Amino acid sequence: MSRAERQQLLVRGETYAALDESGDMGGGHGGPPEGLFVRDARHLSRWQLTLDGAVPEVLSPLDGERPARCVLVPRGGRQEPPAHTLFREQALVEGGFTEILRLLSNRPVPQRLRLELTADADFSDQFELRADLRTYAKPGAVRSREARPDGVRFGYRRGDWESATEVSATPAPDAVIHTGTGARRLVWSLALEPHAECELRLRVTALPHGGARVPGSGTAEEPVRATAAAGAGVEEAVRRTARFEVEFDGSARQTVTAEAGVDGSTRQTVTAEAGVDGPLRQTATAGTEFDGSVRQAVRPKAERQAAEDQPASVQAEFAGAAHHAASAQAEFTDGDGQTDITEAEFAAGLPLPDWPQLAAACTRGLADLASLQVPAEGPDGEALRVPAAGVPWFLALLGRDALLTSLFALPYRPGLAAATLPALAAVQATADRGGAVAQPGKIVHEVRHGELAHFGQVPYGRYYGSVDATPLFLVLLGAYTEQTGDLALARRLEPHARAALTWMLDHGGLTSRGYLVYRADEGGLANQNWKDSPGAICSADGERPSGPVTAAAAQGYAYDALRRTARLARTVWADEPYAAQLTRAAADLRDRFQRDFWMERSGFPALALDGEGRQYDALASDAGHLLWSGLLDKEYGETVGRRLLAEDFFSGWGVRTLAAGQRAYHPLSRHRGSVWPHDNALIALGLARYGLHDEARTVATALVEAAATDGFRLPAVLAGYPRGSHPAPVPCPHACLRESRSAAAPLALLTAIGGA
Questions:
Q1: In this structure, are residues 158 and 193 in contact, taking their beta carbons and an 8 Å threshold?
Q2: Residues 1, 42: contact at Cβ < 8 Å?
């Protein structure tokens, strides 16, 4: 088993911890890095426990639950059973990490032991830990270590950048020892009475640059519990009650009093039943969404008006649904506002009586989405929670990822879209900035908070290298308005939507070149569509285009954006001339695309055009995105849909990004032969749009069966090997282990097969 497979991830907002099977963190570069990470920095690079100077043996490996637990014993031979057992329990709090160590004596006689915990914080930036092993100069950087009565404080300073990590323990360590490597070793000498137990509690608090200290995340106040006659320094501890403040909805604060637990939380569950009109009556949970907004009841697809010429009736219908949902009392949450969803609660009333595996995948996806929420601000500074792209590499706001995640979840969790749209509006570009590829009206690609972004050593602090985030912003705004009837958000974001359209028409190239076009960014991304790896846009033989690139999928998004924004202009903004202009632009784009991109010999659209208008003829999954957006006419669309299910495209686990048999194909390449669940979710939605329902179910079945091999969690990307070559999906290297688009993909599959 590889290190990545043994690794467990704990995720909570902007904080995540990657631990090995014993609960240790060993740092490292190149592979999936271990440690505690907050706001793109590693605040704990080493966290290693020993008993009497030796690494303990793993009796039960760390699980992935919350809190995570493992069982350790001292190493020894077969002749003598372990003298004691260590139960280790670990959990994240926002901006920190907590641990309970419970030692249980297995012997009828007293014993003494030495427990040591070696800790260090290297404050590495995420970009330093990637497999490319790049190095970055850090002139004037200073690290500090300060022993404290209850632990140790690690500090880091470079110019105006400052961050710190505090480790505190109850009971306090007997000593804090220098190791000679920069790490510090916390030492306890413990006495255990016969069959007694003692408990140590530790808290790690990250103080990132620019981050607010989280209430309750400072010095650990949780007590030590002693059972029977525990060892020195432990016996006088008593069980206490912890009092702390929790922010539930980004504005109101509530004080919670609870007996101290490893994650300091209490739990409350409130659900509401709602009658749903139409042919299917459902039980729906309604109330506060992950980000504090109101969650609506799930509604069957047959119940909604889908005709594009009836937006007013759609809006009125969903306005009533939103009002009904707002009247419900509360969401089931735990004491820190995290959503806690069981399969039964989510699946109740969903049209899945014969497909429990898809219900399980949806439930797992929603649980992952709940943990992948990061803070953001809206245009007026309001606090929001939005989907991060994924861990370990992208626990940050990425425009395209957040928009697609919100689109997939829209029929079931519209609160994600209600947060994502204003969050992206708040960081919409307002001026030209060459290094960030920014022009007025463009929607951001990536927002980072790390040291290297702060000092401009990577361009991603606020980076706009995406040709498709801007049209997807408009697609989501239009879809959200139609789905929910929330006209207020469409009115509030009208200036942002118009600015986005202006960017598409002017800087984006729709007016001057007829298409959305991008150029490689030397300091950033060579490709600026969803397939953003350097060789992703190519011909069948692997040749890469030079000069301006016109990627096919982005034109589909632009077409959908023009049509949906025209509808907003007509029905919400009362601007008929603007609506007519956008409708004409969409129709012209459709005609132009089918003329310039369609390859008669292949019966398939080109992947891209180069600066001279030459077709790049790789057969790629991007054609499925054109089905989702409706850019192709019916005959072409049906031809493409059926072609995507041919053996060279369809691996058995999903549709490959590039069809096998082409010189450019590689099953382990990120975008030239692998299988991406979110890509397949868009394809399934597109197949359903063109009436290819059997094909949509085939794609959905493949993804659900892939998810079933890993606890019903879909990975970010799978290798493109055919299903018959290996009994389980083969993972791709260097991929995110949890990803928001993949987490939301089962919801899109549910929609594609008729669930919404």
A1: no
A2: no
